[in-house]
Amino acid sequence: MSERPGIIPLSVAAGGAPAAAAPVIDAPPPCNVRRAADLSRLLVSGAVLLVAVLLAVVAFARTRRTQQGLLDAATALPPGLRDGVLGAVQVVAVVAPVVAFGVLVARRRGDAILRVVPAAALGALLSWSVTHLAMTRGRPDLWPQVLVGRGALVHAGWPSAAYLAACAAAVVAAGPWLETRLRRTWWTLIVVCAGLSTVAADVVPLEAVAALSVGGLAGSAVLLLAGGPADRPGPQAVADALVACGISLAALWETPSPDRRPGEGVHYGAETTTGARLTVQVLGPEDRNRELFHRLARLAILRHPADTGARTPLTAVEHELLMLVFAGRTGARAAEPVIAYPVARGGALLVTVEHAGRPLSAFAGEEMTDQMLTGVWMSVARLQKHRLAHRALRPEHILVEPDGASRLTAFARAQLGAPPDALGSDIAELLATTATRVGAHRATQCALAGLGPRLLATALPYLQPLALLGPAQREVARYDQARARASGAGDKRRAVRPGGRPSLLHDLSAEVVEATGAEPAPLAHLARFTWRSILGLVGAFLVIHLVLPQFASFPAVVAALRDADWWWVLAALPVTFISQAFSTCLQLGTIPARLPFGPTYEVQFASSFLNRITPNNVGGMALNLRYLQKTGIETGAATASVGLQSLAAAVSNAVLAAWFFAWAGRHHAGVHLRLPAGRYVLPAIALTLAAAGLLGVTPVGRRFLHEKVSPFLRAAGSTVTGVASDPAKLALLVTGALGLPLIQVVGLVLSVRAFGGDLPFAQAGAVYMAARLVANAAPVPGGLGALEAGLIAGLTALGVAAGAATSAVLVYRLLTFWLNVPLGALALRAVQRKGYV
User: What is the DSSP secondary structure assignment for residue 347, as one 8-state letter?
Assistant: First the structure.
């Protein structure tokens, strides 16, 4: 092999001589991990089970007919053949689990047994529950009669769906400890037994499918909770592969790193018999499975994900080897490749020359010199010149040598002939991640020195979250959250500015514009779907299925307006605007910080528009949460504010409903309040306790509680405490919560008066609250249709003429519901343009 830049001859690593003795291997004992394959199996099994349950519950009539046809075909077989098949299945169902358990005991797989037993129990329990709660409606009516008088070793009907699910769960749970051939053999036996049971009319076909999916679900859940052995080659297999590819290996040791991300494999250090030191990256099927989730996520989110087409660990390391060779040819300082080679158990390794140094992420901000950062950017400039995108350009993938020189590593996602999106995203990602350590100004100046103004300006359209990979996104988000927390640490009741949340990417854009003299550039359109397109699709669906039928009553509204008293209609017109003022008061009263009234009023109008196209006010709550986050309020505090708004509204509605019904009931005996029974309280408590138990007993759950839940609850508690200790906030909260439903009742009274009705305020309030309770149970935006029906029924029950009641309700909804659509749409565009959301 000839000497060329960027290529290290294999003879240098091998030393030209075979290894004289067995290499010394120093690696930690294997530990259990949570594998991406188990997660993917869990998701697929859950999807199959969901489809089976929906077929049995929703389309039970058609499912029953289909399964009856299959049952008729099975019963048409000779009885002797069916009983013979049933006997064979029962023999296998008895013998196979005993043999499998004996194999695990003989091989001393105690860790596998500790997962098989609970997985089998969980699979049987889940299958029994699903069968008895959901699948019985889809059973053919004649199926129980088919089982009468039949049997082999035992009565017909065994093995049941629960037994099949337990066996499937046991095989899944033992899978990581079994060889591929043995695992496939057990799966074949289970699937064949399930198929033969359906042929013998012993198990309903849909229940057999559900049993297998429940088994996959239960086994995968146990493996995800307890962990299993890593699906990648061990140290001895790595050493054997290094020797097989011609490297005279003397020692091999694992080099763990806290910065290494899942899917990047295991790194080893190696030394040859001649003293050369190498770095060995080992990938297994587990790493490619994790990469699959990454690719699917980017494919769903981005318009042009441009991910590599590597399908196996070997093609992945070969791709990285090629990228390293090309990077060396560009003149950039990158890791020096040696060889890519397959390893046992479907793995592969990539060997590079080891260089002493630390990753850039290990340096504190004050340790990062301008010379060091400028050198990194000079290597990046050479990659940019030759259109080679790194696509994971973060400090943990930059090695800094003792003399301050740097080398780029981790070219697994690199791309030749990269488009502007990938090249610009590289600069944006490295700029953002270094700015979290040294600040926006210094990071920009170092990038300017290494790239020059023209290349640096190309990053402007890509200084946005979507241009960053997941780790960089999270790092920038944590940095902004820390700044927002620090800015509000001194005064919980500080005045906040809409759209004023600290944003590192916004600061970097301003720094780049100032440093390069370039014009501000619009952000590149990277997302496959935007909120506007999603809302457009949802709105179009709702217009077709919900709104268009309502236009059938539009002529009635026009006709009603001709006969209405226009003075009363004009008096009801301000109700919409006053309602949003009360909503604004409710919003202002649920956050300790001082929000400005005007922007918050605009956001409430925009929220009302989203509530018209989303059920149960989900869209409005999401917009309010985003508005509070953009002001710089922590996510936990913002979520607590939105939740407090919903709680205050619910409590005020309950209080007003009780008051209106009690008041109106003294004058009209036909008004009654019936609250729904609390039959769902105990199941909700049981699910909550089960979830709390899982979170408390598992390491992942405890880490989630410590890192996510605890800070969230502290921020939420601080918000509630701040509101409760401020009389002005409490006054705003009570005013908004009570005023919002009361002004709606006023609008209803005025609409009834416009058509000659004379309804007392208390009775109008009772009608409105009763109709609101009915409408809240309907899964349609704004109670569309349900609220109108409830109001008309209530008004006619209280003596209002049917024609006048219908006309009054139509005009009332026109003023309080439909008028919000154009006004709210204009407000939504305005708050988006101003950067409030």
Answer: E
Shared domain for 246 and 173, answered yes or no, is no
Measure the CA–CA gap between 114 and 110, rounded to whole angstroms: 6
Amino acid at 361: S
Looking at 303, 320, 353, which one is the last position of a domain?
353
Residue 153 is given by DSSP the state: S
Tokens representing 489? 């640490």
Beta bridge partners of 343: 347
- The phi and psi torsions of 347 (rounded to 5 degrees) equal -95, 180
Do 243 and 154 share a domain, yes or no?
no
Per the structure, the count of domains in the chain is 4
Indicate if 20 and 134 belong to the same structural domain.
no
**What is the phi/psi pair of residue 576, to 5°?**
-60, -45
Q: Is residue 691 part of a domain?
A: no
Beta bridge partners of 748: none
Name the H helices within 458-530: 470-487, 504-516
3-state secondary structure at position 398: strand
CA torsion sign for 609, 610, 615, 616 is: negative
Query: Which residue, 633, 670, 696, is CA-closest to 794?
Result: 670
* Number of H-type helices and E-type strands within the chain: 34, 13
β-strand 415-416 against 249-254: which pairing, if any?
Answer: unpaired
Rounded CA-CA distance 503/500 in Å is 8
pLDDT in tens, 395-447: 999 999 998 899 999 998 899 989 999 999 999 999 999 999 999 999 999 99
Shared domain for 407 and 314, answered yes or no, is no
Domain boundary at 288, 320, 353, which? 353
Q: 377 and 398: one domain?
A: yes
Question: Residue holding tokens 């019985």?
Answer: 136
Domain hosting 629: range is 531-538+556-675+734-833
Whole-angstrom Cα Rg for the chain: 34
* Whether the Cβ atoms of residue 582 and residue 508 lie closer than 8 Å to each other: no
pLDDT 10s digits, 136-170: 776 776 666 555 556 555 666 677 888 889 999 99
Burial of 647 (0-12, 13-18, 19+ CB in 10 A): middle
Give the C-alpha separation, 249 to 240, whole Å.
Answer: 9
Distances (CA, A) of 821 to 430, 606, 814: 43, 9, 10
**Strand bridging mode 24-26 / 249-254:** parallel
Residues 426 and 393: beta-carbon distance below 8 Å: yes
Span 50-78, average pLDDT: 76
In contact, 554 and 708? CB cutoff 8 Å = no
